[in-house]
Amino acid sequence: MEKAALKGTVKFAIFLIAILTIVSIINYYFRDQLNIFLDFKQPPAPPVISPLPTSQQPNEEMNFFTFGEKLAGIQEKKTYLILFQNSMELRPGGGFIGSFGTFEIKDAKIIDKKIHNTAVFDSTLNNPPSPPYIIQKYFNTDQWGIRDSNWSLDFPTNAEKFWEIYQLSSQKKFEEIDGIIGITTNIFPYLIKQTGPITLEGVEGEFNEKNALEKLEYEVEVGYVERGIKKEHRKKIINTLFDKIFEKFQQIDKIQQLIILNDLKQFLDTKEIQLYLFDKKLHNFAKKYNWTGEIIQTKVDQDYLAVVDSNLGALKSDRCIQRNIDYLVDTTQEPLQATVTINYKHKCSQKNFMTDDYHSYLRIYAPLNATLIETTGFVTQSVNEIIQGKDKAVVEIEANKKVFGNMVFVPLKGEESYSFTYSLPLQIKPRDYRLYFQKQSGMNDAFLKVRFKNQQDQEILYESQILKDIEIERGR
Prior knowledge:
This protein has 11 helices and 17 strands. The chain is an alpha+beta fold. Strands 11-12-9-6-14-17 form a 6-stranded mixed β-sheet, with no helix packed on it. Strands 10-13-8-7-15-16 form a 6-stranded mixed β-sheet, with no helix packed on it. Helix 1 packs antiparallel against helix 9 and helix 1 crosses helix 10.
């Protein structure tokens, strides 16, 4: 049984990493019982379980392999909606949703699929809801479509909004599904790394781990003319390239399969893949390991921070943006005072069809009873319409967190810094200080420094690149 479960789980890993990522990359270019090996560790502060539209499942032991087997539709057909989130155009849930897919699978094989262009699908919506104000203002729309449904840091919130909007379309195919999966384009280079360099007939040079994204874009936008391909046929190189990738994945040996299985876990840990499952038992298993992308619910005496960017029409410029996050906790103040400063550096120098000056709606998620004191660097007029009272930023509440928001602008080759200063809840004390930092899906370039200021000096509690959620505790 364990061997069969392992086989099913490996199949599912390849299904997610290869097939779904490949479709995700198409979206990128066309907007219109092995626990030792897997190194399982339950996160320090698992999120609170949210209600799901499911029935209670039979009580049976669940492990990663049985989880993967059930998810992959072994002996039972499964239907998923897959959100292809372009992390080069960062949105709160992982990236701009230029397309999504409906997938029916059984025994880890696709038996039916359809890919939807969100721009087209959104045109079929009947009486869609009104979007958040920032979307209305910067995209000049009064309709909330699929493409902007992942406006929250909380993936279950995004999945539920996606499902709500999906139901409004005359083109919807399903009334019931088994889950919604979000996947970012950040793992595309991984595919080429696994297969090795790929060459295509009639295309100069090779596609490799380092140049795959740029080369594919060039061939689609420019190279097709040089190769004498008609514009309406320029997408065929995508199918040709991915046929090669599929072919190579079929030749993967058992050792590499185990490596892929572990890599699947890493992609889940780093939120490149996020799961919202309608089967409560499966969802709770994924939730146990923080694979559902929920906003973490911390205790009242623990600090919390998330830094969330929403690219607003700055094309694919997030690939050019370097972020350094400095978080200073001042213990000389009562209550404690926190200042989070984000330094942005735009590493690209020229405008083109995928690069522009960077403009984003930045939000800071803090403990619920935090109180905003001041901001620096922002042009408050950009959000004046929705700023309340004397606040210098938009102040909201979401998922038991206080949220501060404002617009950031970073010119090509430029560097800008923005900061929020706020008081922390009285329950957070210097002696047993702990911070939970929650990573935004799709944001893999952020460097975090956490500093602790007292009467005598400053103490650096943490200083490293952020790859996944992390809990920082003073003295450890």
